[in-house]
Predict the structure.
Amino acid sequence: MPSLIGGKRNERRPLEKIGLVLFKIIQPLFIGSLKKYKIIHAEGIAQAMIHLANNTSHTEVIITSNDIKNIAKNI
């Protein structure tokens, strides 16, 4: 399950934009078990989904945001 998703949007979401700014400021403090709450970008989510769809036989996979980043980084 991804954390807050970063990236450009077609629609205006002012509260989400404020949340993203706040998250960017405080996310360096997210260490250890809090890493899973760091912002993740849609491209990384898409890369991880494609990789998992092509390389697993499970019909349902739940992974943390941190694991999504690691999968996308290692492709």
About this structure: The first strand starts at residue 5 and ends at 6. The mean pLDDT is 85. DSSP finds three helices and two strands in the chain.
